[in-house]
Design a protein that fits this description.
2 domains, MFS_trans_sf, 16 helices, transmembrane helix, Growth Hormone, Chain: A, transmembrane transporter activity
């Protein structure tokens, strides 16, 4: 008798074609959970501190009077820009040294930059230490942390990346409060020294706990594999993420300033950024958990769309503390999902082969937009203004960009199939 005819369900076949690119088995845990703990802490100390820049910006505006707002905001936008620009030299470093030693180098640079920041007296010194030096150290550490979990998880990939990314949300809650209180109690210099000392045990654990599962790829030893850009879907995802990143940082950097100029109580103005980042923590874990069951690309489109819509529906008409808090919670959740789902979507759609190259090029593509976003937004706020004048333009700017980003994601999603109930 011949072999029985396959009766594979069409939807299962579609899932194999359009769902997970990797077909081999992944551990889905074990040592991977320890790797997740390490990468969570890395994101806490890297992007968590980047997310806390709004508090630093308030301090700089008060102590460098006469300096234009967009000049000061450039310090904060330099950090994520340098993080993403450093993704290109990071690939050969990781392939040559591995995850552990790459993280050691990045950690040492970050700690050194915080110590140098504690000595800064001029704006240009802050540019060098906080903007460039910290950004490069954070970039080396951040890229290592974003690549490592995807070698250990496939079925739970979005959740794994979401847990990693949620470290930056927790950092965005802890560090603004810590910085604001420490500056009041011990001054600017000792604030940054204390944070640097706190980094030492956190990053020491991370350097020991992080581990690669796959052998190093010698073909990517010196430069990323640029041929991955020939895949138009990957290129489109890079464009969508870059456009979204152009709109992401203006709200993060200026929401504290908006709260202060709205006349909010200090208890609200000082902690609105922490509230936003706390909500982002939920957005980086719960929606990715659902996305692992529905498909990451299926979940990414509506999440990016509502990130833009919430800017128009809650921040644009905001004229009270209550509505501002509602905005911070809802937009924080939505923007957190935006951060978490893009990288895990790449792992699903294109697999772990050339993943470091794809992540490197993916993050590089949004580097100039991270730099430009707050600069452009700063021009909307009149110099010397004490009210919320100009914030309407900032909100429209960011909102339109997120909606445009969501439409590109939708295009990529529909290019696989127009059927809705398919894991993509």
């Amino acid at each position: 008798m011949g072999e029985p005819e396959s009766k594979e369900c069409p939807c299962e076949q579609i899932s194999n074609d359009f769902g997970e690119k990797d077909t081999e088995e992944f551990p889905e845990g074990g040592r991977g959970w320890l790797v997740l703990a390490a990468t969570f802490l890395v994101l806490n100390t890297t992007y968590g501190m980047v997310n806390a820049f709004g508090v630093y910006q308030l301090y700089y505006l008060k102590h460098f009077t006469g300096t234009p707002t967009n000049v000061i905001s450039l310090i904060g936008s330099l950090q994520p820009a340098v993080v993403y620009f450093s993704s290109i030299p990071v690939v050969p470093v990781i392939n040559h040294l591995g995850f552990n030693y790459s993280l050691v180098i990045g950690s040492l640079i970050m700690i050194f930059s915080l110590m140098m920041l504690s000595l800064c007296k001029e704006i240009w010194q802050i540019y060098l230490s906080q903007g460039i030096l910290f950004g490069f150290g954070a970039g080396l550490s951040f890229f290592t942390a974003m690549a490592a979990p995807q070698e250990w998880f496939k079925r739970r990939r979005a959740l794994a990346v979401g847990i990693t990314a949620s470290g930056s949300s927790l950092g965005g809650v802890i560090w603004p409060i810590a910085v604001e209180r420490l500056i009041d109690q011990v001054g600017f210099g000792w604030t940054n020294r204390i944070i640097g000392f706190i980094y030492i045990p956190i990053l020491t654990f991370s350097c020991i706990a992080i581990k690669a599962r796959l052998p190093r790829d010698s073909s990517e030893k010196y430069m990323p594999n640029w041929s991955v850009l020939k895949d138009w879907r990957f290129a489109a995802m890079c464009v969508a993420n870059a456009i979204g990143m152009l709109g992401l940082f203006p709200p993060l950097f200026y929401v504290s300033t908006f709260a202060e100029r709205l006349g909010a109580r200090p208890s609200i103005a000082n902690y609105i950024l922490a509230i936003l980042n706390a909500a982002s923590l939920v957005g980086r874990i719960l929606p990715p958990y659902i996305a692992d069951k529905t498909g990451r690309l299926n979940a990414l489109f509506p999440c990016v769309l509502v990130t833009g819509v919430f800017l128009f529906t809650f921040w644009y008409p905001c004229n009270s503390e209550a509505l501002l808090v509602v905005f911070a919670v809802l937009w924080g959740m939505a923007s957190g999902t935006f951060i978490a789902l893009f990288p895990s979507s790449l792992g699903q759609l294109f697999g772990v082969k050339d993943l470091k190259s794809r992540l490197s090029i993916f993050f590089l593509s949004c580097a100039p937009f991270c730099l430009a976003g707050p600069l452009i937004a700063g021009t909307f706020i009149p110099q010397g203004a004490t009210d919320t004048t100009g914030f309407d333009k900032l909100i429209i700017f960011s909102g339109v960009l997120f909606i445009a980003s969501s439409l590109i994601v939708l295009l990529v999603r529909l290019s696989y199939t127009t059927k809705l109930k398919v894991f993509i």
